[in-house]
């Protein structure tokens, strides 16, 4: 029963794990959560990948990272590497070392030139069979805001594919956005070796 529970409690209590299982996340994987905030996706991913896996929690907001660290400490999660981008100049991850990059509800923070650089960085981090998963909230078709306000899903797919990724799946499913469960569109991409730029 979920009576009296907040959406975040329901998410962290199991729904988030099921979401990531459906995405294909398994034990031992190495994951990047870019713009993780307090860990809506980092926490269930850390639980799923287990002690043999590792997740890089990348965030510029120190209080959000602190909240994530406190949760991890109290739940004995030791496989999270915290990267505060307000303090480090370059995110120095080994090329082709990552199984999955999550870029959820974060692209709207960046203008086009910066987004392209970010996709290229993701591309270089990912293993040849790795996956980029994007939740492009705040686009033209879903509560438009900031830098994605004028772009629809096709525009976003085209922009990401221009850096060498290939869309494998576009799905709509229930997920957490900020503190609330809602339906959101997820775009999943593979690394295509054929037409990468900047790598
Ligand atoms: C709306 S939140 C989404 C949080 C989480 N991904 C989720 O879906 O629940 C976006 C987060 O991206 C972070 N962010 C924005 N630009 C960033 C950057 N350059 N480096 C790291 N984090 C960034 C923000 O601080 C914010 O916490």
Query: Distance N terminus to C terminus?
Result: 49 Å
**Main beta sheet strand tally, sense and closure:** 7 strands, mixed
Count of DSSP E strands?
A: 7
H-E string:
HEHEHEEHEHEE
| Rg | 16 Å
Contiguous uncertain segments of 5+ residues: none
CATH architecture grouping: 3-Layer(aba) Sandwich
CATH level 4 superfamily: Vaccinia Virus protein VP39
**Number of contiguous helices:** 5
Say what the CATH topology is. Rossmann fold
Mean pLDDT: 95
Number of domains: 1
Bound molecules: S-adenosylmethionine
Proportion in helices: 25-40%
Strand order of the largest sheet: 3-2-1-4-5-7-6
Share in β-strands: 25-35%
Shape: globular
User: Can you identify the CATH class?
Assistant: Alpha Beta
Q: Assign the structural class, choosing from mainly alpha, mainly beta, alpha/beta, alpha+beta, or little secondary structure.
A: alpha/beta
Question: If you had to describe this structure to a student in words, what would you say it looks like?
Answer:
It contains five helices and seven strands. The chain has 199 residues and is of the alpha/beta class. The protein has one domain: Vaccinia Virus protein VP39 (Rossmann fold, 3-Layer(aba) Sandwich). A seven-stranded mixed beta sheet has the order 3-2-1-4-5-7-6, with helices on both faces. α3 links the parallel β2 and β3. α1 crosses α2. The protein is globular. The site of S-adenosylmethionine has 15 residues, from β2.
Question: How is the secondary structure organized here?
Answer:
Layout: H1 7-23, E1 30-34, H2 42-49, E2 54-59, H3 62-74, E3 80-84, E4 98-104, H4 112-125, E5 126-135, H5 153-161, E6 165-177, E7 180-191
Parallel strand pairs: 1-2, 1-4, 2-3, 4-5
Antiparallel strand pairs: 5-7, 6-7
Helix pairs in contact: 1-2
Bound molecules: S-adenosylmethionine.
